[in-house]
Amino acid sequence: MELFDIKTIAAIAQAVAIIFGGALFLLRLAKSVGSLEALLTAQSAEIKDLKNETKKLGDILTKIAVQDERINFAMKRIDELAHWGGFVGPPPWSNTSPVRLPRP
């Protein structure tokens, strides 16, 4: 039996190819994992920014709702005044005289 027969050389070549292929696979996998980590870091920063923007939007919506309620209240008061509901005394078109309080 020779030291370097064809079967031995083929087995050695196969082992080297498997080892080289495995090493190449691990290098590519490490590179992919590194790029995925960078993407996840960027994505988490984007999510953080979106959370801040959503909070600001919620604050703005709250302020708009409060302002809407104030406008509704003001419109109600204007309607009451238009129908003489907010004044002390009778409306000017009535025949009764207004109640006058004595001055101190």
Describe this structure in words.
- The protein contains one helix and no strands.
- It has one helix spanning 6-82.
- Helix content is 74%, strand content 0%.
Q: Name the assembly state.
A: single chain
Q: How much strand content do the residues show? A: under 5%
Distance between the termini: 135 Å
Give unreliable regions as ranges.
none
Total helix count? 1
Biggest β-sheet strands, sense, barrel: none
Overall 3D shape: rod-shaped
The proportion of residues forming helix, as a percent range, comes to over 70%
Mean pLDDT figure = 85
- Write down the secondary-structure element order: H
Integer-rounded radius of gyration = 42 Å
How many β-strands, per DSSP?
Answer: 0
Q: Look at the helices and sheets and give the structural class.
A: mainly alpha
